[in-house]
Write a structure and sequence with these properties.
Order of helices and strands: EHEHHEEHEHEEHEHHHHHHH
Helix content: 40-55%
Number of domains: 3
CATH topology of the largest domain: Rossmann fold
Shape: globular
CATH superfamily of the largest domain: NAD(P)-binding Rossmann-like Domain
Strand content: 5-15%
Largest sheet: 8 strands, mixed
CATH class of the largest domain: Alpha Beta
Length: about 300
Amino acid sequence: MGVIGSGTMGFGIGFYFAIHGYNTVIFDVSEDHLNLAKEKFNTYYDLFEKAQFPLQLSKQNAFKLIEWTTTLDSFKETDLIIESVIEQIEVKQNVFAKLDTIVKSDAILASNTSSLKLSEITENVSRMKNRVILTHFFNPAQIVPLVELLQLPNTDHGVLEKVHALFESIGKTPIRVYKEVAGLVANRIQVALAREAISLLEDGVVTKEDLEKTIFDGPGFRYATSGLLKIMDFGGLDIWDKVLGNLQGEIESSIRTFPVIKDLVNEQAYGVKTGKGFFEYPGKGFDELVLQRDEELLKHLLTTHY
């Protein structure tokens, strides 16, 4: 396996491959970035071990499977390479153009993105044009099961199916996206939920504390055991038909900016990474809070999938 980028997403993808026994090449532009990822490997292996995740390898043996590199030539013999660099189209295009001249002919090139179009990212790819797909993981990639898969019209038959089977074999939940739409599937649903939720907050319908409780102990509580369509089946499609008819004209559907967010951004209150967003996060640093979140996510993963 190969991963381009050792940041939040790239690290998570590479870590997950390695603990499942795959030789993995992780690239970044500097040794400093790679050293940070190496430190995270130890931290997350310990976290997985503490949570009693079914680890196949010792920390030492899993770590040995990773080659840390600052040269793209290291991907010459790699089977699947997943690009996970900054969300800038020119940067991604440049990476794919370089990989096009380096990798073996039966390799698979993938991009981990949902905000940019795969067809545009790979427009400078020629030799490997029929071997490109999209593999969109969710943060944290080493824990959240969902991976969205998309192929282009000229992708060889069987390429996506091969990756789909691979991901299923290591405990991921791959889904196929049949059309190249902005945001793919999950992020479109998240944005629709966020637009309605923030509009209710901004319009004074609910406090931010009760909004969190509503989502966590209402829809989110049910989503922990079922997808939306089964929830509708249990509620009765006749009922949902009426609910949709009654409410669609009332919910937020316009494109609007949200001062409640813009004001926080202008104050540089970006959320957990600055210690303040909608809520304040005193006494703990960003890394500690992320690990605390990921520990809870791991518990949920083990409860629902293992």
